[in-house]
Amino acid sequence: MKLKGWKELEMGAVIPEAGNAEQYNTGSWRAFRPQWIEENCIQCLFCWIYCPDSSVTVKDGKRGEFDYGHCKGCGVCAHECPGKKGNKAIVMVEEGN
Amino acid sequence: MGKKLAITGNQAVAEAMKQINPDVCAAYPITPSTEIMQRFASFVSDGVVDTELVTVESEHSAMSACIGASAAGGRVMTATSSQGLALMWEMLHIASGMRLPIAMALVNRALSAPLNIHGDHSDGMGSRDCGWIQLYSENAQEAYDNIFQAVRIAEHEDIRLPAMVCMDGFIISHSIESMEFLPDDVVKDFIGEFKPTNPLLDVDKPVTYGPLVLPDYYIEFKKAQHEAIKRAKRVTLEVAKEFEKISGRSYGLFESYRLEDAEIAIVVLNSAAGTAKDVVDAFRDKGIKVGLLKPRLFRPFPYEEVADALGGAKVIGVFDRADSFGGFGPMYMEIASAMVASGSSPLMINRIYGLGGRDFMPEDAEAVIKELVEIADTGKAGTLKEYIGVRE
Ligand code: SF4
Ligand code: SF4
Q: How many Å apart are CA B350 and CA B360, to the nearest integer?
């Protein structure tokens, strides 16, 4: 990507375009990756509510896959996940494994 | 022609703020600037202005609230002094980096310790690197006039930077002098409507202020800021020309007093310049070619123009009412930079005076000018930097 010169920048470092953080993939920082174990999932959507990066996708009221382009691997979802009968529906796995 | 009244510097600034009628003021009281916001608070409670007055718990919060209100799209003003400005320090950089045209009255006061409430320039000079435009004022009239011009310069579309107007604590802020006011409608026309850029309250066009900018872009933003404040020199002159039309009072980047043919020059800021001008006259009467330069726009500093004005002088005495401990006084550094860049090499001395509000007397100016005369004769400048008016 060609970087902009000083004359081309928005004054005062304002970001004039709403929601463009989506274009910035923060997933590459991740050391641990959350993994969804669907059979333990009770569809409570706690993970969706708690995720600070909106990286749990939901469609038609049902939990979908993680958005790994933006999930930074904080593990909040795995911590909050009640799972089924004591079996977590989200586990953190070290990247590269 | 506006009405003439005897009034203190603080009252003059409060009056100017009333005529500007800003959208938001956030302030915390501190001597000697307290009276400005105290009077302005009465204007708010009496309904003479429409301003939202935010009474905060510290100056850090005051400047933070000013930044929020300015980013939201309002015309914003505040006032402070000394420790108050020091507590704002972090936020001063944020205001300028975000390019928010906040206007502030700074009533110059010494910094602690030891605790002192009187006038010197340690606060203003200490904030010279914060990216704010700085205008200095000799008296109440200049402070009043500078406030309007500061708003116009700060809000100019080529600038968009915060600006502070400085005047000496107590010596000007609390002394009554006669000055002329502008009629309200004239001020209103001169100030005009504030047109915000990227206002946060424009919900149809949402924007983000204050993102993280890493090494790949930070320096580009700072270069843009540097170019913007440089343009303030041109805009200050344009605004001054317009201001002269409505007031009959002319302003420049600095004031030259009997400098044209001067072989000896002194540089004096703010109220002490008034005293020094009388002493210059006395030396002129004796046939000694001495002149005075009183800086007005300190940030951005008009190096070329100052060097031009001082170009004919063989010796220059620079007075500083602030010290950069272990270095020369801040004004001396600027004047020396200006002279070096212009290629001229006058003999220059730096005299620190009036710290903590110690009176600057005609005899002080006289002694330094006498010293300069001797330096001109001998071609030798003894001690380059020295305190004057100090007991042994
Ligand atoms: S690990 Fe953190 S960022 Fe990733 S999905 Fe879970 S809560 Fe969201
Ligand atoms: S928190 Fe766990 S159980 Fe609840 S929806 Fe998310 S993955 Fe499923």
A: 15
Q: Which ligand is located closest to the Cα atom of residue A89?
A: 2
A92 lines ligand 2 (CB under 6 A): no
Give domain status of residue B392, yes or no.
no
| C-alpha triplet A37, A43, A48: angle, nearest 5° | 90
Contact state of A13 with B221 under an 8 Å Cβ cutoff: yes
* Omega cis (within 30) before B300: yes
Give distance in angstroms: CA of A94 to centre of ligand 1: 14
Q: What number is the ipTM of this complex? A: 0.90
Question: For residue A82, how far is its CA from the centre of ligand 2 (angstroms)?
Answer: 7
| pLDDT per residue as tens digits for the range B245-270 | 999 999 999 999 999 999 999 999 99
CATH code for the domain of A84: 3.30.70.20
Partners of B266 in beta bridges:
B292, B317
Q: Are B111 and B169 in contact (CB under 8 A)?
A: no
| Alpha carbon distance B53, B340 (integer Å) | 47
Q: How many residues does chain B have?
A: 392
CATH assignment at residue B227: 3.40.50.970
How far away, in angstroms, is A56 Cα from ligand 1 center? 7
Please count the structural domains in chain B: 2
Is pLDDT at B138 greater than 80 in this prediction? yes
Pocket of ligand 1 (CB under 6 A): A 34, 51, 53, 55-56, 66, 71-77
CB contact (8 A) between residue B227 and residue A9: no
Among B189, B199, B24, residue whose Cα is nearest residue B99? B199
Instruction: Work out which ligand 2 atom sits closest to the CA atom of A48.
Output: 6
pLDDT number for residue B1:
62
Domain that holds residue B120: 4-247
Which are the contacts of B201, defined by CB distance < 8 A and separation ≥ 6? B72, B73
State which of A54, A55, A88 you would mutate to test the pocket of ligand 1, scoring each by most atoms of that ligand within 8 A of its C-beta.
A55
Give the amino acid at A86.
Answer: G
